[in-house]
Design goal:
Blueprint: E1 7-16, E2 19-29, E3 34-39, H1 45-52, E4 60-65, E5 68-69, H2 75-82, E6 85-88, H3 100-110, H4 116-129, H5 145-157, E7 163-167, H6 175-192, E8 195-199, H7 203-209, E9 212-217, E10 220-225, H8 227-231, H9 236-243, H10 261-277
Parallel strand pairs: 3-8, 3-9, 6-7, 7-8
Antiparallel strand pairs: 1-2, 1-4, 4-5, 9-10
Helix pairs in contact: 3-4, 3-5, 4-5, 5-6, 6-7, 7-10
Length: 278
């Protein structure tokens, strides 16, 4: 079916010992859509990613990838579905002993691709997409944080996946590099119509990148909407989260009022996003 969602998470639950991590989570990601999953530490975001690639099975409920069941099926069926999904780990997870070319080529070799020309062509194409042409021979130790993230994205997309999953793609980057990586992720999603799900705490990037946003709290979906609706929300917990407000009385520690920098950053990102789309 043409209008069938690419990802369906249907009422999944998960529990580790006495701790309930996911409590009836449901959502869908449309084909070609970029969905941002946000929420505090321990909300269940990374656990959801593990369910999407079949590393964890829900205690109840199900996960569908392009209409096929990923959860509670034999490993060989999961492996077939995983071949359609690219995954970028939070810290990049590059192999220290491999250069950039071999890191990006790794998934292809694992899939049995041995032809040298095919390997070179596909790796070069992936590196070009993340603007790293000419860096094939560099080792991870010689890469900046932003370059490591870009290599990790190239590795995730070298197998021509239908879906890309990102775990904190801008974590640990300075603001300028973070903006550049966010732009690259959005550009790849739009240009190649790859279904994309991002777990992040970077609210400026969320506003720039996402088509829709889901807010998780205590293992439940508490809110869903567009970036514009996110900024206009009246939900106090969500408002505090996106503005980074803990409720502490900062004014008592300063002689003069300080600007709400986080709020200004988010509203500037919102302005840029919707001006660009007009």
């Amino acid at each position: 079916m043409e209008n069938q969602p690419y990802i369906v998470v249907d009422n999944i639950t998960q529990q580790f010992g006495q701790q309930v991590v996911l409590d009836g989570v449901s959502f869908e990601v449309k084909k070609g859509e970029l969905l941002a999953l946000i929420g505090g530490s321990g909300a269940g975001k990374s656990v959801i990613l593990k369910h999407l690639v079949g590393l964890l099975d829900p205690l109840s409920g199900k996960v569908l990838i392009n209409g096929l069941q990923m959860s509670n099926v034999p490993e060989r069926e999961k492996a077939k579905l995983r071949a359609r999904i690219g995954f970028m780990f939070q810290n990049g997870a590059l192999f220290d002993s491999m250069n950039v070319f071999d890191n990006v080529a790794f998934p292809l070799r694992e899939q049995g691709v041995k032809d040298k020309k095919e390997l070179e062509s596909r790796v070069e194409s992936a590196l070009a997409a993340v603007e790293l042409t000419g860096h094939e021979d560099k080792m991870p130790a010689n890469l900046s944080g932003g370059m490591i993230k870009r290599v990790a994205v190239a590795r995730a997309m070298v197998s021509s996946p239908e879906c890309l999953l990102y775990d904190e793609p801008t974590a640990g980057l300075d603001p300028v590099v973070s903006d550049s990586v966010s732009y690259m992720i959005r550009r790849i999603c739009v240009a190649q119509q790859i279904t994309t799900l991002i777990v992040t705490h970077d609210m400026s990037s969320v506003v720039h990148m996402a088509d829709r946003v889901i807010f998780l709290e205590r293992g439940r979906v508490q809110w869903t909407g567009t970036p514009l609706q996110l900024i206009e929300t009246e939900s106090l917990p969500l408002k505090n989260f996106i503005m980074g407000s803990s409720g502490e009385n900062w004014e008592s520690l300063h002689r003069e009022p300080r600007p709400d920098f986080q709020k200004e950053l988010i509203h500037e990102a919102l302005k840029e996003r919707y001006q660009t789309e007009r």
